[in-house]
Structure formats: structure tokens, C-alpha cells
Write a structure and sequence with these properties.
By secondary structure, the chain is α/β, with parallel strands linked by helices. The protein has helices spanning 12-23, 39-47, 62-73, 98-126, 147-167, 203-218, 223-235, 247-258, 261-266, 273-284, and strands at residues 3-6, 27-32, 52-56, 80-83, 130-134, 173-179, 242-245. It is built from 10 helices and 7 strands.
Length: 288
Amino acid sequence: MKIAVVTGTSTGIGYTTSLHLARNGYHVFAGMRNLAKSEALKAAALEESLALEVIQLDVCDTQSIANAFKQIEATGPVDVLVNNAGIGGSSPLELTPEDEHRQMFDTNYFGVVNCIQAVLPAMRERSTGCIVNITSAVGLMATPNQIAYSASKWAVECLGESLAHEVYRFGIRVVNVEPGVIMTNIFENSAEQTRYDKTSPYQPIMRRNGKVFAAGFKRAVPPEAVAETILESITTDEYKLRWPVGPDAEGFLAARNKTDTEEWVQMGGDLSDAEYNEKFLEKFGVQL
């Protein structure tokens, strides 16, 4: 059996992907920082007699990573790494403390780097392997009120594309899976407390960002759609780097690419809600 490692598996995309890969013939090592949250995944795997093992893996802790991959490699070499662990957050840059900004990069970007570096030498030596990075639609679309999160996902997008070029000659596949709004609790795993304040000068930006997500949740897709896309990206004979998932990822990005950058920036000006909503509907086809 091929071995797949999935990070951030206690809930949502990681949880669902671990089960989906195990159901499709992979021996899955499901990594999570807090094993106290592992019971649901263990029970689901046991009920279906799946080859799935939950391991302690904190992507921000180099010793935890070393211990986890030593345990995994006792079974065999890693064929697939799914970099899913991440934290969300939303607040204007001026209101985001440096430690929270760094926390998002430590998890969302450096956590990916740490795990890739753990598996890359063996993949290169064997001339095979696949690295899947779970990025985000906001990793391709600059998102106000989510600068830290958006920037960390932009960084992973760049990492994935650059790495894909670096390791192509070694037979290693790198893909970026880019979900839009998915029905998960990622923003419950947030780097900061909510800072919504009706008296803040940033209140219109915060409110509008919330409305965009509210509109997204009305047509959000389940994490199973991401898991299915991950499996397809791993197994398809026709390689491609980017795999958007859901109407937000596909529709918003296409619409944003057709919108002049300066016009998008100027939508942050002193518009009334009615004016902003009209422009957003015109450009993105979404009623806020």
C-alpha cells in the first residue's frame, strides 16, 4: 500500500481527506497537534477497518515532525504528503498584532516547508512522490480584512509553483488545491479574537468581508469535494498545478482576473453600502 501523510486531521478537510484516501487504498498517517481530538477519526477508521493511524504531528515543532516521520518511515517511504494544517483569521492589518501575524505564517507557510523538507530527500532519491498543498482562493485573490491569512496562502501558492519546477526532473508531482468557502470550522481555529467594532474606522471593510463570507456559505461545498479533488490531483495522468474547488474559487478568481487592479483597490473607497454592493454584484456576480 502507498503511504499518505495528511496534516491537520482533527476536523474538516484533513479529517475527510484522511478517510477518503484510506478508502481508496492508501495507508494513511493522520497527523494532528492535539491527540485529545483524535477519537472521532479513530472510531470512523475502525468502523470501516481502514488502514489509518493517527499520530502526533505539530507542523510548527521540528522535534514533533522528526518524531512523526521517523515513526512513519518505520512502515515505509512516504508516497503522498497532504499539507492541510492551517489556521484562519480576519482583521485589518493595523489591528493585527505581530505575534498573530507570525503565528499564521508559522503554521500556514513554515509548517508546509517543514513537512516538505522532511519527505523531499527520500522522494527525490526514489524519483517518485506527490506533495499536495491546501492553499485557498484567497491565496490568489488579495483579500482585505484577511491580509495575514491571505498573504500566508499567497506564499504557499508561490512555494508550490516554484517547487513544482524544482523537482519536476526528479519525478515528483506538486499540486496546489485551492478551496473557496468550505463547510468547515477553520475560523474557529483562529489566530486572533474577533475585533469587529462598530466604532472602528475599518468597520465598513470588516462588515463587507463578513458579508462576502456569508454569501459564500450559502453556496459552500462540503469538505468531501476537496478530498475528492485531492485524490484526483494525485492519481490523474494529466498533471496540472492548480486545482480550484467550489464556486467561489472558480467564479471569484475568474472575475477578479478580469477586473482592473486599480478599480478593485478603489472599491475600498468611501462608497455607500448600496454602491459597494452594486459594484460587487457587477464584478463578481454575487449579491451581498
